[in-house]
Amino acid sequence: MNGFLLDQKSPPELSKIIMGNVKKRRKELKLSQIELAKKSGVSFGSIKRFENTAQISLQSLIKIAIALDSSEEFLKLFSQKKYSSIDEIIKREK
Question: What integer is the mean pLDDT of 60-83?
Answer without folding.
Answer: 89
